[in-house]
């Protein structure tokens, strides 16, 4: 069966490094992601337009390169979970979660009975189409399918103990920028209120034995400042921002070399 590299890294006590994917899908993208050393890819359906067909192809190509594909759905799109998992995603990320009930709803659709109520769709590409008994495949899928919620508001922070305690939940991902907006620190994801909220959430998630992750951290220094937290997974950036920065840097290098403004 196909390994979940992200999960393996976290279980080894390492921080799994992820890249956000929002640009139009291309066949070479998974190769670049894998060669750069990323462990997982954050396929964003909340803020980007990726067709179901392209998403399935991306998931398959990423898995074949040893990169774990996770899909962030939009709030209110839980009806898409089954088809996304059966198309090859190895986990689902649900944004803007503020209650334990919302986390329970995600787990129910990501896990088979008795933990959840995911419908059986056969030996999907998620596992590499192994020819094994259905019960064995369901058990393997439950062990390697990640159900992750995002904490991005004051309400989510206030309810984090109940959210992190939901049976079957695999992890909590802090949305650093959106959290700072909700806490009134617009444009300051390293502000004091946001920092305190992240520390509170991280400690609760660590204590509950769930995987804790951060998205939207402005710099490695920001992460190092969060002392005492076990950070299991990190979204290192979004492809369009990295691409734009690289293009600008290359253009500036050549303008300077050629002596042009």
UniProtKB/TrEMBL annotation:
Belongs to the HpcH/HpaI aldolase family. One of its GO terms (cellular component) is cytoplasm. It comes from the Bacteria. Keywords: Lyase, Metal-binding. This is HpcH/HpaI aldolase/citrate lyase domain-containing protein. SUPFAM superfamilies: Phosphoenolpyruvate/pyruvate domain (SSF51621). One of its GO terms (molecular function) is metal ion binding. Residues 33-209 form the HpcH/HpaI aldolase/citrate lyase domain. InterPro entries: Aldolase/citrate-lyase_domain (IPR005000), HpcH-HpaI_aldolase (IPR050251), Pyrv/PenolPyrv_kinase-like_dom (IPR015813), Pyrv_kinase-like_dom_sf (IPR040442).
């Amino acid at each position: 069966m196909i390994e979940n590299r992200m999960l393996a890294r976290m279980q080894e006590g390492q921080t799994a490094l992820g890249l956000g994917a929002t640009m139009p899908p291309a066949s070479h993208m998974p190769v670049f992601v894998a060669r750069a050393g990323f462990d997982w890819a954050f396929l964003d359906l909340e803020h980007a337009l990726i067709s179901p067909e392209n998403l399935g192809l991306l998931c398959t190509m990423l898995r074949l390169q040893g990169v774990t594909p996770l899909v962030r759905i939009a709030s209110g799109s839980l009806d898409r979970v089954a088809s996304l998992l059966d198309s090859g995603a190895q986990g689902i990320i649900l944004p803007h979660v503020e209650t334990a009930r919302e986390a329970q709803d995600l787990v129910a659709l990501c896990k088979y009975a008795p933990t959840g109520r995911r419908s059986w769709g056969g030996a999907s590409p998620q596992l590499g189409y192994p020819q094994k008994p259905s019960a064995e495949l369901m058990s393997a899928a439950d062990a390697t399918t990640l159900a992750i919620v995002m904490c991005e508001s004051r309400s989510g922070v206030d309810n984090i103990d109940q959210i992190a305690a939901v049976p079957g939940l695999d992890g909590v991902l802090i949305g650093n920028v959106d959290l700072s907006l909700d806490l009134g620190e617009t444009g300051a994801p390293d502000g004091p209120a946001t920092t305190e909220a992240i520390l509170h959430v991280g400690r609760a998630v660590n204590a509950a034995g769930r995987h804790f992750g951060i998205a939207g951290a402005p710099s490695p220094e920001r992460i190092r400042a969060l002392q005492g937290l076990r950070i299991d997974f990190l979204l290192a950036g979004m492809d369009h921002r990295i691409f734009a920065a690289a293009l600008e840097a290359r253009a500036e290098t050549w303008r300077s070399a050629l002596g042009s403004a």
